[in-house]
Design a protein that fits this description.
By secondary structure, the chain is mostly beta strands. Helix content is about 10%, strand content about 45%. The protein contains two helices and 16 strands. The protein is globular.
Length: about 290
């Protein structure tokens, strides 16, 4: 996804096995204390929990005939959140039949967790997660928790790792064309800042957009000061993205509430690839 050369921030296009699913939002939690059970109907989405009180039990079960993995990240605002995986144990004997469970902590945050992926199995066809909150002392403001998730089919052992963690290298022409035609966002613009977020294993890149070719929803926003269109994207920290001067084509996809970089060549390089693809008939979509 990135090269350590200054300004070179290209990667492979979105993996072909990543399926497109509608994004949905589950209803917000109740202000009353207790445990709320939620079973999302979508394979990808966000659960927003305002004024959290008590616990939130999330059952992730995808409609696949094979095993899947559930990847998630949690954003916390003005509150601490502990995320645990719940394991249910069934006990069947001639005398009684009962269920018991235990929790295994996987993350604690007062900001945002790393991306965490948990595979399903024949023993545990659903991934059960339990979120509990703790008030912070001397903290004011609205308290809320956002749980981002995505469920992905596991078709081979290769898919057990995060698709964002693929080898950091420039996209080849074919991958650039595919990224241009299928990404959730395609824009041109310049870098304004690059920040390494070691606690998240991510690098955040702030950009000023000069042209929006395509975006899924309103991903980029205007700043009142200069009416410029801006946004932030992320890349794996180990890719070594550095600040670069020049005009770029930025492409990528939405993942767990963040815009993840896919292919991002210099704009001059993309124009050469585009010209060649139009000439030899390998362009996969219309060009605006």
């Amino acid at each position: 996804m990135a090269m350590r050369e200054t300004g070179r921030i290209a990667s492979r296009a979105r993996p072909v096995y990543r399926l497109h699913f509608p994004i949905c939002t589950a209803p917000e939690g109740s202000k009353e204390r207790g445990v709320r059970n939620i079973k999302p109907r979508c394979n990808e989405g966000s659960i927003r929990w305002r004024n959290p009180n008590g616990g939130l039990r999330v059952q992730l079960h995808a409609g696949y005939t094979s095993d899947f993995r559930a990847c998630f990240a949690v954003d916390a605002t003005n509150i601490a959140v502990k995320v645990s995986q719940e394991f249910v144990i069934n006990s069947d004997n001639q005398i009684s039949s009962h269920r018991s469970s235990y929790l295994h902590a996987v993350a604690i945050t007062t900001n945002r967790t790393k991306e965490i992926c948990i595979p399903s199995s024949s023993s545990y066809p659903s991934v059960l997660l339990y979120l509990e909150t703790e008030r912070l002392q001397h903290q004011s403001g609205v308290q809320k928790v956002t749980f981002h998730y995505v469920m992905e089919p596991i078709r081979s052992n290769r898919l057990l790792y995060n698709p964002m963690e693929e080898e950091c290298r420039p996209c080849d022409p074919r991958e650039l064309v595919r990224a241009y035609c299928s990404s959730d966002f395609v824009v041109t613009g310049k870098m304004t800042a690059v920040t390494h977020l070691d606690d998240l294993d991510r690098t955040k890149m702030d950009v000023e957009v000069t042209r929006v070719i395509r975006q899924k929803g309103q991903l980029f926003t205007y700043f009142r000061e200069d009416q410029s269109l801006r946004g932030s994207m992320v890349a794996p920290r180990h890719c070594g993205v550095e600040y670069g001067v020049g005009d770029f084509l930025f492409t990528g996809y939405l993942r767990l509430g963040h815009m993840a970089i896919s292919c991002s060549p210099y704009l001059s390089e993309w124009r050469q690839v585009l010209t060649a693809a139009l000439a030899d008939g390998t362009m996969e979509c219309e060009v605006d």
